[in-house]
Amino acid sequence: xxxxxxxxxxxxxxxxxxxxxxxxxxxxxxxxxxxxxxxxxxxxxxxxxxxxxxxxxxxxxxxxxxxxxxxxxxxxxxxxxxxxxxxxxxxxxxxxxxxxxxxxxxxxxxxxxxxxxxxxxxxxxxxxxxxxxxxxxxxxxxxxxxxxxxxxxxxxxxxxxxxxxxxxxxxxxxxxxxxxxxxxxxxxxxxxxxxxxxxxxxxxxxxxxxxxxxxxxxxxxxxxxxxxxxxxxxxxxxxxxxxxxxxxxxxxxxxxxxxxxxxxxxxxxxxxxxxxxxxxxxxxxxxxxxxxxxxxxxxxxxxxxxxxxxxxxxxxxxxxxxxxxxxxxxxxxxxxxxxxxxxxxxxxxxxxxxxxxxxxxxxxxxxxxxxxxxxxxxxxxxxxxxxxxxxxxxxxxxxxxxxxxxxxxxxxxxxxxxxxxxxxxxxxxxxxxx
Length: 434
Description:
Shape: globular
Helix content: 40-55%
Low-confidence stretches: 2-34
Number of helices: 19
Radius of gyration: 22 Å
Distance between the termini: 52 Å
Number of strands: 12
């Protein structure tokens, strides 16, 4: 397997300043004339992967290439920031003659890429039996307008992590509702058992709507109905969800700096023993239970809390593989996607990194359960997960929601004003309002 580094963000911006000619040259860094190795006759498939992801995928790809000699995968090293990888893919496809055969993509890219016609529809390549082992929500995350454009390789869902030792010592059961979380957090803070009650991701970035969609669904609300394009941000359920987050700040259950935190800031604080509850993704578990972690053996996890009378919902995340519609090698690309999403590949990555697989059978695999005994309980979370709106304009809709949630949480607007403005702008974006 070969890989080379994609130009830096600074270089990318300088090309943009000089015009599209330079950018076109960059996006054609792997010309189509090299798609077959003259020396070996192997087909060469190209994909761009964020720099932080390459070490996780390289062993999987290396092992597959060692088993067969017909197909090789060339990795173009993209930026670490996911949104920048998406931007570079977008630029390459818009400019034409994209070098990419495979696309490793976040679940929220699917509607945009599929609507633009950049992805091959995989529907006819898979039977119901082929899909049977995949978790339904993850398959749904790869669909758009009746087609299937992404096969899921790993999944994710928002969870509530908590200090099991502190709850047990105080005689509390883990909270099921938002009200219980607030009560328990305030009580243990008053007893000075812990500094902060609840950590969540409040910075203005994609993690903010990912977190909010869980609270929103847990209050019986919704963001955008992708079928009817109805916007639910200015309904009472949305206001109640936002007011819960605002209450954690007002009551000093959450630190004031939470409005600037991403996943890692909250994970480090929780792992250092500074908080009782944490909303985050499953990757936290192996890190917080590492040998040098202050909270090793003291934590547990559960589905997200919800408002009384409603149900828990974790935001569905995850990554998968698609095929560029422009590829010259669709058959070889499909072989690659099948392996990269196979049980063998997923088990390899799960054992190495603790990623949640998208195949149901792996949640009963003895080797995986020995290392991650909580995996079976994750099925409940994943099967009740909520999708961010699968609409072609998702990136713009997310930007709108991020801006107004941030304005409300930083008290630049009231929750009512923020959600009304967000709903109005979203309807304008979707063409369903003035």
